[in-house]
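Holo prediction — pyridoxal-5'-phosphate.
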Amino acid sequence: MTEPYPDSGFGTAGVHAGQHPEAAFGARINPIYMSAGFVFEDFDDAAARFSGQTPGHVYSRLDNPSLAAVERKIAALEHGSSARLVASGQAATHVATAALLAAGDHALVSSRVYEGSRALFRVNYARYGVQVDFVENPNDVHEWRAKLKENTKLLFAESVTNPKGEVVDIEMVAGVAAEHGVPFIVDNTIATPVLLRPIDYGADVVVHSASKFLTGQGAALGGVVVDSGRFDYLRHGQKYPLLSQPVYGKEDASFTARYGNAAFIEAVRQQISVIYGTTASPFNAFLLQQGLETLAVRIRQQTATAQVLAQWLEAHPQVESVDYSGLASSRSHGLAQKYLPRGSGAVLSFTLRGGRPAARSLINAVQLLSRMTHIGDVRTLILHPASTTHAHLDAAERDEFGISEGLIRLSVGLEESEDLIADLGQALDVLPPPSEKLLISEDRADLAFASALS
Ligand SMILES: *Cc1c(COP(=O)(O)O)cnc(C)c1O
């Protein structure tokens, strides 16, 4: 963006970026423009706006002023050049990748991605003739290189993975993508731009589930695609016919001819998201706008509390291990020092020594924490991945991803850390001592837990 907000002023950008006072009445807050369409001045104005010759909104599936303000703000926060707001995080991953992939193409994807993203690549794209390979260890440069193909059109990974909180070496993967001349797309949902801006490390595109930390209050779904504006689509145009060739016949110029290297984000906007109909509601855009204003303070506070909880859990006798890159015991601690100097985020997971029975007991016993499959809320949320988000996987796959029977995911909110520790503490206290558990089978353990609770 052209608006200058130094890194040190993240809170400043969160409040001010993209926010022009409203013209009609001078409203300080960009209003909710809840209108399907926008009136044309006259006959010629209609034609000119349709063709894009004059600026101005036409129809809200394509564009809406409530969305435009949020797109400018998120692009600024992520150090991108332009952004497209859509209805959910799934929609964002879909439209970003659909602009680059066609039947016969290949995509290379980190295996450590959100289950919805894995399903998009593994099931939905497979049906359209797009081949996908998964990189088992996303921090292994050799595996990325070895799995590249002539027809590989994009690389995809999460900066911080869900639920295990592994940090991906973005600069390394961006280097592999650059060698091959394809864009690297990073899902930055968990880190948020407050903690990490993938574009600063060479990512070409950033996607978010805005339903999570960006909105923050757990009320609205949303997603966003942010373009760095740096990938050379003019040079690599032959790989991306949607961008480099006229879409509707010869007389209609291509996206690269009209927009240069902004061809990608303009194709996402004008061809992919508008035609698939992934549009965000102006009302949801407004909730997201209000959430973004407090993003910096929320993330700082929630991250600090997560660090306190991670340390407390690691010392608890019922807890076998904690996955949080802010701990020295984490495999990702080294990468976190490089990529997450402001903190490791508000999502952490830990493994109970008592396996599934202990997990059931803990989840049933918490009172302050909400049992929910969501992250990034101002409330602290607790989930057992093996029986919910990852239940459809077979045991071998769950093993590979480290989704053990005792694994618990927390998304840490804005409650005081003492209150969270008190609630988790009372819930862990009803578990039988872990040493007893080791002597009994899982079934017997279930009975033991049931009696311990009654
Ligand atoms: C939730 C989530 C998504 C999907 O977002 P929705 O808004 O639920 O569609 C994608 N990636 C990550 C990392 C997520 O946590």
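READOUT: The two ends are 59 Å apart (CA to CA).
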